[in-house]
Amino acid sequence: RTAMWPGLGRLSGQLTAKRLHSAAVIARMKINTSAQGPFNWVAGQRSQPVDSVGEFDNVSPRTGKLFCRIPSSGKLEVDRAVGAARSAFPGWAAMSGMERGRLLTKAAGIMRENLEDIARLDVNDNGKPIWEARADMESVIACLEYYGGLAPAIVGYHVKLPGGSWGAASREPLGVVAGVGAWNYPLQTCTWKVGPALACGNSFIYKPSPLAPLAAVVLGEVLQQAGVPDGVYNVVQGEGETGALLTSHPDCDKLSFTGSVATGTHIMTAGAKGIKNVTLELGGKSPIIIFDDANLKNAVKGALMANFLTQGEVCSNGTRIFVQRGIYEDFLKEFVKQAKGMKIGDPMNDDTTVGGTITEDHAKKVLGYIESARNEGATVACGGERVLLEGDCADGWYLSPAILTDCRDEMKAVREEIFGSVAAVLLFDTEEEALTRANDTEFGLGAGVFTQDITRAHRVVDKLQAGTTWINTFNLAPAELPFGGYKMSGIGRENGLAAIEHYTQYKTIYVEMNDVDCGPLYQED
Fold it and tell me: What is the mean pLDDT of residues 60-86?
């Protein structure tokens, strides 16, 4: 049957041999998931910075002990990384979407082959339980797969115009993207930027948080093994000074940041000075509204997901839980029972549900919020204390999940983002009251509603001032759907088709098929 296409058999054999060779190369290559440097990734290799502005300690939240010391990249190193990205950009942008997508999909496969090793690195670097780290890796893989599949469909459009003329709008990459990420989901916040950016044909320089800096370098090795050209993706390590050098660099065309409002403000200022496209995913103080008719078990499960994953260090957390009077006591009883039953222990153990808080300073900040709530009249129904472990984890800061009751909306712990396992349970009577109080915040990242009345669910969600909302669940963020906030919670969106808008620009092409008609401007002799 191949006779219809001369040479097809030979081509098939060549492709098979090439695949087998590639598979053999990948099998021989080892992803480095150790805490051994170098920790920068520039022009396709791990490297020490050519200059530095000091170094910082990477302390493992799991053990409370020094994991490694990492140099902070200086101006020359940032210049080198930006230069590598700029040099790689034309060739990467010239590839077809199909070609780029194929490489991202291949990277997803390599990530899956190394999932357990990368998840364990994440536990040591971030402190979250191993089962959560594995779930995070699945979300990273899903992002690469989604944008790998979407890349061929990132196209413009064609328009027929009067008189047979026509126009086209081509969608083109922005150029060199600078990204700065967060420590709570180290590789996920990185990939949510890198996936769509690379699918669109941009090159990238990423600066991880100094509190969880290691996984981003591993992504460099994964992308290289998948065949992504050197220089397309780069990593520079550092603290605030390095971040400022990167985000103010004149040869970066786009800035993307996940983190605090304060740092986001500085990055937006840097973008304004260069008139650059900026995407910000910032903080939150999200509400959950639980109505009397809600399924009690699902409401409690949702509240646990909304407050106690990753030690409560999640920007979209639903930390203001508004519970209608008729279900309040039953909900609170079960919620407290489940929170008390969570197992605090070594996050490497599969049955651990509470891991180590990111740093001692942050743990003390969380405990300070709990104390302020007590001083303002709140009741701590459970938790809110440091739990001392034995063995390897003895020096880590492990906090028991806290539930606050007898709260008022104006309390500091109810209004400000704590970024820890602290849930405030608030009583309400009417739907209108709950909506007014839920929207009374400067943030607008997430919101949720639990009810078996689907009409009410849609009515309430329609009025909630938040970019990401959930009905009868919470804190799920699939790659296929946009994620981002209203108000002080950020600008732009990550994930879904919406992210493509933030990593491309349109070029309009008008084609005249007739003689130019310029009216009376031109006079015939």
Answer: 97
Q: Name the token pair of 298.
A: 């699902």
Region 374-384: what's the mean pLDDT?
A: 98
Residue 488: per-residue pLDDT: 97
Q: Give yes or no for a contact between 430 and 281, defined as CB atoms under 8 angstroms apart.
A: no
The end-to-end CA distance of the chain, in Å, is 67
pLDDT at 463 over 90: yes
For residues 86-112, give the mean pLDDT.
98
Q: Are 313 and 358 in contact (CB under 8 A)?
A: yes
The predicted structure's pLDDT at residue 426: 98
- The residue written with tokens 């001392």 in the block is 388
SS3 content of the chain, % helix, strand, coil (to 5): 45, 20, 35
Alpha-carbon distance of 423 to 413, in angstroms, equals 9
Residue located via tokens 């472990």: 389
What pTM was computed for the model? Answer: 0.93
Give me the catalytic one of 132, 239, 281, 417.
281
What is the reported pLDDT for 203? Answer: 98
The band of 148, judged by pLDDT with boundaries at 50, 70 and 90, is: very high
Q: Do the beta carbons of residue 471 and residue 130 sit within 8 Å? A: no
Question: H or E element: which one contains 47?
Answer: strand 45-47
Q: Which of 169, 196, 208, 185 is nearest to 279 (CA)?
A: 196
Residue 21 has pLDDT above 80, yes or no: no
3-state secondary structure 384-415: CCEECCCHHHCCCCEECCEEEECCCCCCHHHH
Bridge partners, 265 (sequence order): none
Radius of gyration of the chain measured on its C-alpha atoms: 25
Q: How many alpha carbons fall within 13 Å on the CB side of residue 92?
A: 29
Among 68, 200, 315, 393, the one annotated catalytic: 315
Find the angle CA(308)-CA(310)-CA(316) to the nearest 5 degrees. 70
Question: What pLDDT shows up at residue 438?
Answer: 98
For residues 258 and 187, give the distance between their C-alpha atoms in angstroms, rounded to a whole number. 12
Decide if 315 is catalytic.
Answer: yes
Q: Which is nearest to 318 in space by CA: 170, 449, 148?
A: 449
- The residue length of the chain stands at 525
DSSP helix/strand/coil, 284 = coil
281 counts as catalytic: yes
For residue 234 the two structure tokens come to 């780069």
Supply the pLDDT for residue 34: 87
Give yes or no for a contact between 215 and 140, defined as CB atoms under 8 angstroms apart.
Answer: no
- Is omega for the bond preceding 38 within 30 degrees of 0, making it cis? yes
pLDDT of residue 13: 52
Report which residue type is found at 382: C
Q: Which residues lie closer than 8 Å to 234 by C-beta, 6 or more apart?
A: 40, 41, 42, 43, 81, 84, 85, 203, 204, 205, 206, 220
Q: What is the pLDDT of residue 35?
A: 86
How far is it, in rounded angstroms, from Cα 171 to Cα 185?
30
Mean pLDDT of the chain: 94
Does 89 have pLDDT greater than 60? Answer: yes
